[in-house]
Each structure stands twice: as C-alpha cells, then as structure tokens.
Amino acid sequence: MKTLCLVLALLLVYTSVAYCVSWDEDKRPYIERFREIEAAYKQRFLDSQKKKKEAEMPSSKRAAEAKRKQEEAQRIQDAVDEQLNNNMKERLSYTEQIVNSLIY
After folding, report:
1. d(Cα 72, Cα 81) in Å, to the nearest integer?
2. Quick one: residue 58, left, alpha or beta (phi over 0 = left, psi -120 to 50 = alpha)?
3. d(Cα 12, Cα 10) in Å, to the nearest integer?
4. What is the rounded CA–CA span in Å between residue 80 and residue 50?
5. Per-position DSSP letters for 40-80, written without gaps between them
6. Is this structure's pTM higher than 0.70?
7. Kindly report the CA angle at 6 between 4 and 9, in degrees rounded to 5?
8. Which pLDDT tens digits describe the chain residue by residue (104 residues)?
9. CA 61, CA 59: separation in Å to the nearest integer?
10. What is the C-alpha to C-alpha distance for residues 1 and 7, in angstroms, rounded to an integer?
11. Rounded to whole angstroms, how far apart are CA atoms 32 and 29?
C-alpha cells in the first residue's frame, strides 16, 4: 500500500512538473517547430558536405581558386577606384565651371 501511494505521489509530481514545463514551452504548432529544426539540420548537413568537399579538393586546386577569387576582388576594387576617380573628375569639372562663371 505504501508503495502504491508512493508511486501515485511520484506520478502526480511528475505530471504536475511536466504540465508546468509544457506551459512555458513554445506555443507554435508542431509543424513549424519541426520545419525550423529540419532546416537547421539540413544547413548543418550542407555545411559538413562543403567542408568535406573542400578537404577532398587538392591543394593546387584550392590555390587556383583562391588566386581566382583574389583576382576577381582586385578587378572589383579597380572598377570601384576608376568610378571614384571619374566622379572626382566630374566634380572638379563642375566646380571649375562654377568658379569660371563667377569670375566672368
């Protein structure tokens, strides 16, 4: 009898604690939480596949890809510098026109 009362008391405590814990948990539908968790696992899997692929890639190929990325970055930087230079020339020309119109 004592064992039965103890088991029932423990069951009551467990269910009340479980109810309190579940009361504070996320109220979103299960499918939304599942999709969120699934997306996280999928992203983790894709990241691990990417790392594995990079590890399998020969060092010469990695070096060539790094060089290609560096050249692309340099081309972009050169284009930005050229655009900035052109903008500065246009501003200088515009300023000269204003100064000349004020002088004459």
Report:
1. 14
2. beta
3. 5
4. 31
5. HHHHHHHHHHHHHHHHHS-HHHHHHHHHHHHHHHHHHHHHH
6. no
7. 110
8. 778 777 777 777 767 655 554 555 656 677 777 888 888 999 999 999 888 887 777 778 778 888 999 999 999 999 999 998 998 999 889 898 888 888 87
9. 5
10. 10
11. 6
How far apart CA 26 and CA 22 sit, in angstroms, is 8
Q: How far is CA 104 from CA 41, 91, 92, 98, in A?
A: 72, 20, 18, 10
Burial pattern 38-76, b for ≥16 Cβ within 10 A else e, equals: eeeeeeeeeeeeeeeeeeeeeeeeeeeeeeeeeeeeeee
Domain boundaries, the chain: 1-56, 61-103
